[in-house]
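subagent[fold] <- orchestrator: predict structure for attached chain, return tokens only, no commentary.
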Amino acid sequence: GKSKSASDGLYVENRGRYEKRSDHKSKNHGNHRSKSKTGNKNRSKSRSKFGPKACWICGDEDHWKKDCPKRNKGGQQTKSHSSANVATKDTIALTASPIVHEDQWVLDSGCTFHITPRKDLLSDFEEFEGNKVMMGNNTHCTVKGQGKITIDNPDGSVVILSNVRYIPDMGRNLISYGQLEQSGCRYNGEDYSVVFYKGDKRVLTGKYDQGLYYLQGIIRKPEANAAKEIKDMTKRWHSRLAHMSLRSRETLAKKGYIKTEEVKHLGFCEACTLGKSHKKSFPKAKHITKGILEYVHSDLWGSQNTTPSLSGAQYFITFIDDYSKKVWIYFLKTKNEAFQKFEEWKLLVENQT
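subagent[fold] -> orchestrator:
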């Protein structure tokens, strides 16, 4: 048989168990094959009850792999130089790091969205179900919601990532390169580190470890203050029904329009108190004047809808002396003439007195 290339591949499995399988050269099996009496190289029609290559560990045909005496003996399992680690179950993802840390976030250039299996790290969480994300082995995981994560960087800056998908079946916390670039970030990688910038400001940093770039920062757990709503239906019906009195609301309850338990005595209502209150009227003015022009009353009257006079005036202004009760009247075509007429009146009375 042809030998395979000397390369190994590691696949993460559902149970994390793998078995080794090796191909052996034909010389390892020659002693166990029967030849014909004529001495030619053709195989005999009679075969072992175990079939060709029955054991994948030692190559013998007289037993199965599970009964091999060399099974589970470390380096004695295989004799060939080329071997491959074959998963016994369906693979989930290809990874180079055998250790998974729930608190670590991986900067991934292959994922479409930011993903986390930890709901406790998400703020402004919006729960929904139905969307699916395709994995590397053509399986799908269901998205249960999305939210935001807050990252405290080592330099003291704070970064908030939005639209982080919550997938409980995911085994890693992932930050998407594509999502960061869509938000206006650019990245630069050198010396086993990758740095994301937005403008001139450093946003995120990742350090290389065992084939992956891990986020250098701490995810802040959100703090939520839960408030319980207390519904006061008595106050609500009182407001909805234009501040109706208790007796009228009891009448509606007897007729079945509102529930009886929602009609109770209402305490202080500020709107009702202000609506029923009355302001005191202005007291009559008392002016004690001892001479003319000591106190003067003035008023401007008119409207643009008033029919103009023969001279085209639509307004007039009056000046009344409180002591002598003398009245001066000036007619105006527009309201902006009021100050001009006041100056004329002032000059007039100053000349007369």
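orchestrator: received. Logging for downstream: The longest helix spans residues 338-352. The helical segments are 177-182, 233-240, 246-254, 270-276, 338-352.
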